[in-house]
Amino acid sequence: MTSILAVLVALLGLPVSAQDVPLEYRVKAAYLFNFTRFVEWPEDAIAAAAPLIICVAAPNPFGAALAEMVVGEQALGHALAVRTVQQAAGCHVLFVPEPVNAEPLLRDARAHPVLTVGESPDFLRLGGVISFVVEDGKVRFEINQEAAQRSRLRISSRLLRLARPPDRTAK
Amino acid sequence: MKRFRDLPIRRKLVVMTVASTTVALLLASGGFLAWDILTYRNEILRDLAVQSRIIGENSAAPLVFNDDTAAGETLAALELRPRVIMACLYNADGRLFATYHRGRGTTCPPRPAAGVEFGWSDARFAAPVTYINGTVGTLFIYRELGDVLERLLIGLGAVTTLLVLCTIVAVLIGSRLQQSIAQPLLDLAGIARRVSDTKDYGLRAVPISSDEIGVVVHAFNDMLDRIGERTEQLSRSNADLEREVDERKRMEVERTMLLARERDANRLKDEFLATLSHELRTPLNAVLGWTRVLRATQPGQEKQARALESIERNARTQARLIEDLLEVSRIVTGKLRLQVRPADLAAIVDAAVDVSQPAAAAKRIRIEADIEARPAMTSGDPDRLQQVIWNLLSNAVKFTPVGGVVRVHLRRDHGFTLTVQDTGIGIDPTFLPHMFEPFRQADGSASREHGGLGLGLAIVRQIVELHGGTVSARSEGANRGARFEVHLPSELGIDAPGLRLDTSAAALPAPRVDPHLLASVRVLVVDDEEDARELLKTTFEAFGADVTAASSTEEAMECFERSTPDVLVSDLGMPFEDGYALIRRVRARPPQHGGLVPAVALTAYASPNDRLMALSAGYQAHVAKPYEPAEVAALVRRLSRGAATP
After folding, report:
1. Beta strand extents in B295-404 (DSSP E only)
2. B57 burial class (0-12, 13-18, 19+ CB within 10 angstroms)?
3. Which of A10, A11, A162 is closest, CB to CB, to B62?
4. A13 to B64: CB separation less than 8 angstroms, yes or no
5. Which residue of B275, B314, B318, B541 lies most exposed, with the fewest beta carbons within 10 A?
6. CB B548 within 8 A of CB B578
7. CB-nearest partner of B93 from A11, A34, A138
8. Cα B398 to Cα B385: distance, rounded to the nearest angstrom
9. Which CATH topology does B2-168 take?
10. Are B522 and B439 in contact (CB under 8 A)?
11. Which of the following CATH numbers is that of domain B340-488: 3.40.630.40, 3.10.180.10, 3.40.640.10, 3.30.565.10?
12. Cβ <8 Å between B61 and A158
């Protein structure tokens, strides 16, 4: 398992400074960043000069890895910013790590165009949009189209195509 | 393989047509094919670019999210492109991420550089896969180019087929088109060949077109016209030249012949003169010899008679010779005239045989006369005919050896045919054609055996031909005798000229000396030559005439003054005043003074012309010297009795 992850990290070309973060989260950090490129937010969601804010519900499992990754990068014409938060307000992307109870966060986020990303098995059922799953040692994800539409998010068909069907994870 | 320029024009034109068509077609086809292949290649490139773009777009997300399965599925879309053998997707690090293989035996190259690599049979295409503004990987597509080759082959096949078809069409068109150029030229060449073969410059080429070939044809025809004219001129002048040469040759031959004939004639004349001299001298010798004997000695009665007989015989021979000469002279000058009367050939032959008997008897030659037709009446000159027969007989006797036989045969045969055949020496065949030419003798040498002038046969032929007859000679060869045949028509078809003239002594009967014939007839004899004058005087006195002699015209006129004679006998050729002057002076006298006295011209000028001149001058008769005294006496007698004109 470790060796496979090591290969993955090498493939993604992550910076050496993030080596203290576990491999799985470094991959997930990259995915989080990449999701911003396949998702469109409603026009009123982000102010013109404002950055696109990626929130990580505390405790942040990525350490500094995610923040380092997005430095200098842009998505949809906006600069990127990473914050560790307790609630969903002000977030454009919200990652809810496994140990955190996702329900209140999802409830908060439901009325806003927030791309919610989780890793617990029932995250999608709770109304989350994207949920990481580990399959054959590879990080994959599932997408809840209904939740996305409810949050007025348009997810690229190319991303949808890569997503694992939700019924398979329900097993 | 013939060189192009030696090909016939017909072929050349076809080859040109086909060659240009083929080359043009090849160039066009080649260009088209190249353009087509290039276009097709560009299309393939564009297609590859489009494909790689699409594949790249679709591969970006799998690359980003590290989903090689999804990437594999994306690449598998290339299945719809059968020419694509292989596609390889590499991530940003250059590691192989996903592959697509059609069939086996292909492996992805490590880290291919972006770009296009076009080979003969395949193409390699590598392009980066971009996402947002970053490169997330590389796509490599490997495509085989069998379709290009196929397309090329199909194109080549089409071009080849087209080429064959076009060549066939070009040959057909060329064959048709070449006729318009080649046919007139071939016609022209044919005419030219025929002209050179047959030399017929009347042939003409027919101009079909008015292009340059038409001009050539016209020029060719013009040239033929010129050549024809020149040839005609040449042959005309050649013919002229030939005619001239022929003319010259003919003239040359004629000249040569004339020269030969002249030489021949000169030789004959020389021979004849020698002969003549000899023949004349021989009797003269006897005459002079016997005369000298008579004068020098007192011969007895018998010897004197023999001498006189010899003298007379030789003198007659000489007279005969001179007569022959005159005859020939008349023949040569064409003045021989016949005195045509009814004549009995049988009687003439009898007379001739009688005359020839003594000579024949002398050589013990028998003359056998066989006369079938009696009388054999014809019209002609009896004296001349007798001369012919006598000539033939004396010839036969002359050339027949002692003891031979001469046969004379006369028969009726569309007229009369007289044959004289002897058993003599015969005639050399080479001499036969010249038998009847004057001055011809088989033996022309001075030492020849037989005498004579060689005139007899010439006279014979002339007389016979004047009678409208023919004479021919035949001989079986030497010593086998000769045979002369004379054919005479029974009636003469000609009216001989000079008939009106009185004849000479020949017309008179053969005389005998009658001492009383001219008794008491007064005759005046005029001759400048004393001998001749004395002979005449003696002759007439022998016949009993009273003769006065004068030696000139003047003397004769004096005699007239004294007494008029009964008859005047005068020589014609005299010095000062000749016989013609004399008779004119006599005829100028009044009749009672002898102006009408009968006159006889006695002359050596013996031609018919002389005779005519004498008669027209005023003489009643003309007697040629030598004369037969009895005949002249008879004539004088007739004239003295007033019977001068018949």
Report:
1. 341-344, 366-371, 377-380
2. middle
3. A162
4. no
5. B541
6. no
7. A11
8. 20
9. Beta-Lactamase (3.30.450)
10. no
11. 3.30.565.10
12. yes
Superfamily (CATH) of domain B522-641: Response regulator (3.40.50.2300)
The Cα–Cα gap between A63 and A82 comes to: 11
Q: Among all chains, which residue has been given the structure tokens 């060189």? A: B3
* pLDDT tens readout for residues B580-638: 889 999 998 888 888 889 999 887 766 677 778 888 888 988 887 767 777 888 888 88
Angle at A135 (CA atoms; ends A134, A141), nearest 5 degrees: 60
For B346-393, write each residue's pLDDT tens digit: 888 888 888 788 788 888 888 888 888 777 788 888 888 888 888 888
ipTM surpassing 0.85: no
Structural domain boundaries in chain B? 2-168, 201-336, 340-488, 522-641
- What is the Cβ-side half-sphere exposure of residue B595, based on CA atoms within 13 angstroms? 7
Residue A94 pLDDT > 90, yes or no? yes
- Chain Cα centroid distance, residue B110: 117
- Amino acid at the residue B410: L
- If you measure CA to CA, which chain B residue comes closest to A29? B65
Which residues face A56 on adjacent strands? A84, A95
Two structure tokens written together for A53: 């804010």
Q: What is the pTM of this model?
A: 0.44
Amino acid type, A87: Q
Using a CB-CB cut-off of 8 Å, the residues of chain A touching B64 are: 34, 37
The total number of residues written for chain A in this structure: 171
